[in-house]
Specification:
Elements: H1 25-49, H2 52-60, H3 72-100, H4 119-127, H5 133-154, E1 166-170, H6 176-189, E2 198-201, H7 213-225, E3 229-233, H8 248-261, E4 267-272, H9 274-282, H10 285-290, E5 294-297, H11 302-315, E6 319-320, H12 322-337, H13 346-365, H14 372-376, E7 377-378, H15 380-388
Parallel strand pairs: 1-4, 1-5, 2-3, 3-4, 6-7
Length: about 400
């Protein structure tokens, strides 16, 4: 195994108004007070500009018909009435604002924060993943470090600089996205992140085809990820110089700026093939300084591939016969031993499982008398046919 966003203003209770594009009720009260002050200033200035001779002419003048422009006295009267209404509304708001903003006041749906996930349950989910033993150990160590760092901050103790950004290196289908999603929730559970969502993008989600658009597109992805994790798959493609109109490096610079501007509430995880990711990180000094934790995801072996297949079957209420189990064990063992550069790990397992489901459906649908066992039982021949597809 191998930093400050401005904190949201708190009014009486722990509500992140920025997260819901709202303003606290107190700010609306401030707006109303400013309106009252403006009315007072306008009235004072307006009254001082009405000269005595103009006032006399106005009194002698015949009454104006409806629809004509009001004179100075009518305007001043209307503004006085508006000021009185503002005073009355202010009094009503001030009487209720303290209760509305108190910690015990009921919250609106927009003010309610999503319930934090249970840390122990998330760790159990992590432990339940097939294989990835070294990754599990590294994630637990990272969470412990982040948790203690957060506690030290709360107790006013010094906290050494620490990067929570990660590099995931490994072949496709090795669980990188699954682990990234769990890390986002774990960071949220211990208070490191404010929301815990995972926003997954690749080059196409960051890079645009015209000058000036890449920074905008990348910034939009960053804004969606604030409070959680921005997961950039195949991140090495951003540094691949494909010509003079390649804007990948602009996306990298925008991501680096976003990491700095939101260092207290944004984590970035970059992922891809091991050798390509090593070159990617070393291609930019800004990347090297921010990413110093590397998680290596090894290929699943034959036994682990078989267990992944079984978990898919169990989750979807399919049961393998004894002959089907024996054949599946051999199939996935051979798949691992004969793997090539395009080996898909769990993705290959999912493809086989989906093929099995289709073949099973064709077989069962042709039977005129089927029971529950027929609907759930997977035969050896189902897996054999699926492996040949």
């Amino acid at each position: 195994m191998s930093d400050r966003k401005k904190e949201p203003k708190i009014y009486g209770t722990n509500i992140d108004f920025n997260a819901y594009n709202l303003r606290p009720a107190g700010s609306y009260l401030d707006d109303l007070k400013r309106l009252k002050d403006e009315l007072t200033v306008t009235l004072t200035g307006f009254g001082s500009t009405v000269k005595p001779e103009e006032k006399k002419r106005e009194e002698k003048a015949p009454k104006k018909d409806a629809g004509k422009v009001a004179g100075p006295e009518e305007l001043k009267s209307s503004m006085d009435e508006a000021k009185r209404a503002a005073d009355e509304l202010l009094r009503e708001m001030e009487e209720t604002s303290s209760a509305a903003l108190s910690p015990s006041a009921p919250k609106t749906e927009a003010e309610k924060s999503p319930e934090k996930p249970d840390l122990d349950k998330l760790l159990e989910e992590l432990d339940g993943l097939v294989g990835l033993e070294e990754i599990k150990k590294n994630v637990r160590s990272l969470i412990n470090l982040a948790k203690v760092r957060k506690l030290r901050e709360e107790h006013g103790l010094p906290t050494p600089a620490m990067s929570l950004h990660l590099v995931f290196m490994g072949n496709p289908g090795t669980g990188k996205t699954t682990v990234a999603r769990l890390i986002a929730k774990l960071y949220y559970a211990i208070g490191v992140l404010s929301k815990g969502q995972l926003v997954e993008v690749d080059r196409s989600g960051l890079v645009a085809g015209f000058v000036g658009q890449t920074a905008i597109k990348t910034d939009e992805a960053i804004k969606k990820a604030i409070g959680g994790v921005l997961f950039i798959d195949e991140a090495y493609s951003l540094a691949a110089n494909t010509g003079e109109n390649d804007f990948g490096r602009e996306a990298i610079e925008t991501v680096l700026k976003g990491m700095e501007d939101n260092r207290n509430d944004l984590v970035v995880i970059v992922a891809g093939y091991q050798d390509l990711m090593e070159r990617f990180i070393s291609s930019n000094p800004g990347l090297e300084s921010r990413f110093n934790r590397y998680f290596v995801f090894d290929d699943y072996n034959g036994e682990e591939l078989y267990r992944i297949f079984l978990s898919m079957c169990e989750k979807n209420k399919y049961t393998l016969t004894v002959e089907a189990q024996e054949y599946a064990k051999k199939l996935f063992g051979d798949l691992y031993e004969g793997r090539g550069p395009n080996f898909g790990n769990a993705r290959d397992v999912r493809n086989i499982f989906e093929n099995v489901v289709g073949i099973h459906a064709d077989r069962v649908a042709a039977d005129t008398q089927i029971d529950e066992r027929d609907l759930t039982a997977v035969l050896r021949e189902d897996i054999e046919k699926a492996a040949e597809m």
